Please model this.
Amino acid sequence: MGHPLVRRYGRTTLIGIPTAWLLVFFLLPFLIILKLSVSQMEEVTFKDLVTFQDGLLTVAVNLGNYLAIFRDDLYVLTYLTSLKYAAATTLWCLAIGYPFAYFMARARPRAQPALLMLVMLPFWTSFLLRVYAWKGLLMEGGWVARVLVAAGLDGPLAWLGLIAAPGQFMNTPFSLVLGMVYTYLPFMVLPLYGTLAKLDLRLLEAASDLGATPWVAFWRVTVPLSKAGIIAGAMLVFIPCIGEFVIPELLGGPSTLMIGRVLWDEFFSNNDWPMAASVAALVILLVIVPLALFNKYQAEAREVRR
Model:
């Protein structure tokens, strides 16, 4: 038992610190973005949303930017393109990361720190340098491009429309997804490893005793029990991929326009901050609303199981 003050205020402190963190670093910036998105921009300043003059209270909310976004096919197409590449990256990270995380969790305890180090090793190098290095590897004459051509994979990739022509890998959907999978794969592996390492192996032994084959035991026992790691990894990959800017700019080329590039253009090229804030607010809502609905569904499912 601790000090009475610790017992009294400990719970409040534990809940208050993350709540304050979310309020300061998420809710407050989001409200600022939301305010900018409905403001009217004058020459160098924003017009006040609420004014009170001569006894008259005036609220001036500009929704024109949101209407323009939904009316312009370019913005809609850009949102859909961002969702498509974020989903493709998440699925590829899951397909590659799950076996690797499973192997790490089943490896000898002495080998697990070394395997974890291999996963974390890319973070020791600058993110920008790692992405830029792929330009040299995938451009004509790069050793990755030569390996793909020697393996005869450029033809099927061109047939699928993932590259422009056989032998041309740069500035294509293939190079974009490859760079994003390479960058975000550790964010999928680490939560999966954390979940699989804590899996009770006696459950697999019980499934085997009941006649389940290794594949059936994996599919009916391991995968459901690792669902929390799958969801956590998918969120860690999918959410930042939607707003990614650097990788599409360096590896995607002009044909793969994503929402991060649109935000950059609106902020720094067009200097249209209200429109940029509107685009950013919709991106945030695009991510938050499905997550909130999913968490609500999960909470209701847990209540039913109880």
